[in-house]
Structures are given as structure tokens and as C-alpha cells.
Automatic annotation (TrEMBL):
Its cofactor is Zn(2+). It holds the Pfam family Pro_CA. It is an enzyme of class 4 (lyase). InterPro entries: Carbonic_anhydrase. Keywords: Lyase, Metal-binding, Zinc. It comes from Parnassius apollo. One of its GO terms (molecular function) is zinc ion binding. It catalyses: hydrogencarbonate + H(+) = CO2 + H2O. Belongs to the beta-class carbonic anhydrase family. Reversible hydration of carbon dioxide. The lineage of its organism: Eukaryota, Metazoa, Ecdysozoa, Arthropoda, Hexapoda. Its EC number is 4.2.1.1. This is Carbonic anhydrase.
Length: 254
């Protein structure tokens, strides 16, 4: 708390006036452009690495950047993640849903261990809310990952905006990342499929009025990757790829 209080005092001196001005500019008519789902990991600061400002986007964070599939909600929607989809995509009419995973994700590291029946049995889930969360909402990602049997030269198939709109993904074709990071990338792509499972988004997705994207952040290098459906893989966003990625987005997602 000492550290937080010192930070607040520093904010009052250095940043408060600028932020108040931004609040006043968007107070009566905020126009966010995206909703950004990412992990609650303390090293993830999405507004900083995207250089976004007050009013630019909604941000939802949880353990493992998971968006529960709609099949888990039969009578009532009882989760923050789909509520965020309604608030942003239905009430505020945003056009872009972004899911961002990252390297060394503690939730994904644990999900990988949950392939063991001993770690994921009912007794474990009853005493561990985190294991229960991951077993319930991360199991599809884990199953797809394990189905590869370690052979990531093979393509993976995901669906996105509609069941008919499938895309191919090659996970870490250069074999740069550890096995848990590969799972993190699979999990990030699986969330696109989960987002599209909500009936309230169906018409907008079918009309190409709402778009779903995947990013992946490498904690240790600070590099950010965009999943290119044209390239069928995560590609680093840098000076050499920026124009190509931008052209893809303008062609297919604008």
C-alpha cells in the first residue's frame, strides 16, 4: 500500500491534469473502438503497450484470458466476460474484439499440468478456484493442444466469426517458444471461437460488421504478435511487418 499511495501522489503531480482533460473530452460521448480481453498477469499492461488513451477501449482481464463458451450459460449469463461482450458489442456498438495471450502465463502453465488426472480431479477443483476455472473453461484449448501430440508442423483448424469461416493455424513454426507458450497461443486462438458462440453477436458477425482478432505478447522481449489468417500464424508486429498486417486488416476487417 505504501507503494500504491506514493504512486497516487506522483500521479497527482505528473499525470492528473492530463487525464482530467482526457476525461472531459470523452465524458459526454466516449467512443471506444474495441474490447480487449487479456490476462490478469501483473506484467501485462495493455493500455501501455498499445498506447491507448482514456475512452479508447474496454478491457477485461482474468486468469488465462479466457472467454467462456456460451454452452456454459443455459438459463442466465453469470460471468463478466459475456457481459463485457454485450456492453461493448451490443450497447456500445464497437467493431473489434481482441484477445491477447502472453508468454510465461501462470494460468497456462497450470493448465498444462492439469492434463494429469491427479491434478484435475474433483477434489482438486473443489479446493482450488483457479483449477476449477481452468478445467471448466480451458479444457477445450488443452484438448486441442494435446491432440497435436507434440507435432506442431501439422496445421490446426479453428472457427471464428461463423462455423463456416474456418482458418488454419501453424503454432510456433520456428519452434521459438516452450511447450506451455505453445499452449498459450492455442488457447488464445480458441477464444475467438468462444466469442463467436454467443447468439447476440451472430448477425453482426455474419454481416462482417464485427471482427475478432488475436494478439500474443512475449513478456521477456516486449514483442507483440498478431495472428494473421493470411499467413496462418502469429507474426511479430514490427517495422518490417506493420504495413503488411495493416493491409490485411484494412482488406478483411474494416
Amino acid at each position: 500500500m505504501d507503494r500504491i499511495l506514493r504512486g497516487i501522489m506522483r500521479y497527482r503531480v505528473l499525470d492528473r491534469a492530463i487525464m482530467v482533460k482526457q476525461f472531459q473530452e470523452v465524458r459526454d460521448n466516449p467512443v471506444p473502438k474495441a474490447i480487449f480481453y487479456t490476462c490478469m498477469d501483473s506484467r501485462m499492461i495493455p493500455t501501455r503497450f498499445t498506447e491507448t488513451c482514456v475512452g479508447d477501449m474496454f478491457v477485461v482481464r482474468n486468469a488465462g484470458n479466457l472467454i467462456p463458451h456460451s454452452q456454459h450459460f443455459i438459463d442466465e449469463m453469470t460471468s463478466c466476460e459475456p457481459a463485457g461482450l454485450e456492453l461493448s458489442c451490443i450497447i456500445n456498438d464497437i467493431r473489434h474484439v481482441i484477445v491477447c495471450g502472453h508468454s510465461d502465463c501462470k494460468a497456462m502453465n497450470l493448465l498444462y499440468k492439469l492434463k494429469s488426472k491427479k491434478e484435475s480431479n474433483i477434489e482438486q477443483r473443489r479446493i482450488s478456484p483457479l483449477k476449477s476455472w481452468l478445467c471448466t473453461h480451458g479444457q477445450t484449448s488443452l484438448n486441442k493442444f494435446l491432440k497435436m501430440e507434440g507435432d506442431f508442423d501439422k496445421p490446426m483448424i479453428f472457427t471464428a466469426e461463423t462455423p463456416q469461416r474456418k482458418f488454419v493455424a501453424y503454432i510456433d513454426p520456428e519452434n521459438k517458444f516452450c511447450i506451455e507458450d505453445k499452449l498459450s497461443q492455442v488457447n488464445t486462438l480458441q477464444q475467438l471461437q468462444n466469442v463467436a458462440s454467443y447468439g447476440m453477436l451472430k448477425k453482426r458477425l455474419e454481416k462482417h460488421d464485427l471482427h475478432i482478432h488475436a494478439l500474443w505478447f512475449d513478456i521477456y522481449t516486449g514483442d507483440i504478435y498478431y495472428f494473421s489468417r493470411r499467413a496462418k500464424r502469429f507474426i511479430i508486429i514490427d517495422e518490417s511487418t506493420y504495413e503488411c498486417i495493416l493491409a490485411e486488416i484494412r482488406r478483411y476487417y474494416s
